[in-house]
Amino acid sequence: MRALAVGATAALLATGVSTPAPASAGRPAPVPTPGIAWQPCEEDRTAECGTLSLPVDWDRPEGERFTLHLARRAATDPAARIGSLVFGPGGPGDSGVRRILLNDRFSDDLRRRFDVVSFDPRGIGRSNPVLCSAALLDRQPQVIADQARFDAAVADNALLRADCRQRTGPLYDHVDTRSAARDLDAVRAALGETRLTFHGSSYGTLLGAQYAEQFPHRVRAVVLESVVDHSLDTRAFLDTQAAAAQDSFDEFVAWCARTPACALHGEDVRAVWAGLLARAERGELADPDRPGATLTPYGLSRLAQRRLYGPDWAGLATQIVALRASPPAAGPRAADVDVDAVRPHPFAVFCADWHLPVRDHREYAAHLRRMARIAPDVRYPQALPAIATCLGTPAPVANPQHRLRVRTDVPLLLANSRYDPASGHNWATNVARQLGRSGVLLTYEGWGHGNYTRSDCVRDAVDRYLISVDVPADGTSCPAVPATSG
């Protein structure tokens, strides 16, 4: 998978690929795709897998190449087929090929009318993954305690970048989402589509937005679900995600107060949670997922945020009760280190997409104090380790933040939960302002990261838009669906 493919496929990158002939009646073979030799996938022969050879550096299209891996499921009703719907996976680090194999993302109506296609983005999954020393990856800090550890994190990150570059090859320096948007246009052309129909989720929304910015006249319909705002500096990035995580935790507390089925009903949930945080600070809380290890305050905060994704409020309450009853941890256990181990590092794309500098530990500590005021219960949002991972990354990065400049013929459809612990509604409203007339915001008045699969109202609005390019009125909202678990 890591090998760079050098092939004579440059012709498929041209935008003037002819549209495939319509399918015949009965049960015809899937629509042929220029440039992609589709074959049944080894894991599931009801899906098809294929590859594209693409430039590592789009500014040097005749230079080195890599292999992009794709998968698709043909439209179940060829007579009603509209074209191809491309799904942009999130993460960063999710596999679009795996999503197609799971076949659980879209409604029956969309699967009836579209070939559903996705791919592993450059540097991820099967598409020349970024590979690095596992020992160096394990040294990345969750929370940095002092200046000495801050300096060590910067030095370790420099070692990690050099190690990843050596193991991965030339693609390591070109895993940014701006380059991935060029890949997406090559996919569109290879599928024989004159315009792109796209649905991106979470980090995949950055891919969709940047595609629309670079190729506005090739957009047929673009859905951005759980929107990422790529215009934020370090402080705004941390603060907005801290606020989103706290809002979601507040909703969990309110649910426990009104719901007898909550395992903490009738108790002071915040006081119980504060007690767990104090035990974690003292190193007395055992990690339920790693026998013999302690749960840090960051780990405890992350545990809650994972449950808020669903949201799985009932599960979070039950886990809090179990942690409260757990015996004191025996103390941290030294981890076994395999200095020769190598593993994928899909998060490398983040450091190519964001310039989030922090000068020293004094500034870092000021960020921590401010976030603790914004989010006293969930004081360590996922943005915090993202900052630590990229400390010391040389500027300018390949794809730095900026306000979107999109002028499409059809507005992009943004779909966001009111209470999303990762991609907050505050991000969606800010992106909608940047898009102006080129964007429409649909709000799900409920909870969780993602909304298409949890609300019939959202699903129907998204389906109408993708099928008929029927754009809902800006500011439309869908009612919350009762959330207790899942």
Architecture overview:
The chain is α/β, with parallel strands linked by helices. The radius of gyration is 23 Å and the shape is globular. Residues 1-33 have low confidence and may be disordered. The strands form two sheets. Strands 1-2-3-5-4-7-8-10-11-12 form a ten-stranded mixed β-sheet, sandwiched between helices. The longest helix is centred in the middle third of the chain and has 25 residues, at 234-258. It has 15 helices and twelve strands.
Keywords, separated by commas or semicolons:
alpha/beta; 10-stranded mixed β-sheet; two-stranded antiparallel sheet; 14% strand; disordered N terminus
Arithmetic mean of pLDDT: 90
From the N-terminal CA to the C-terminal CA, the straight-line distance is: 34 Å
Q: What's the main sheet like?
A: 10 strands, mixed
Structural class: alpha/beta
Q: State which percent range the strand residues make up.
A: 5-15%
Give the SSE layout.
Elements: E1 39-40, E2 48-55, E3 65-73, E4 83-88, H1 96-102, H2 108-113, E5 114-119, E6 131-133, H3 134-138, H4 147-168, H5 177-190, E7 196-201, H6 204-214, E8 219-225, H7 234-258, H8 269-281, H9 297-309, H10 313-325, E9 342-344, H11 348-353, H12 361-374, H13 383-389, E10 412-419, H14 425-435, E11 439-447, H15 456-468, E12 477-478
Parallel strand pairs: 4-5, 4-7, 7-8, 8-10, 10-11, 11-12
Antiparallel strand pairs: 1-2, 2-3, 3-5, 6-9
Helix pairs in contact: 5-6, 7-12
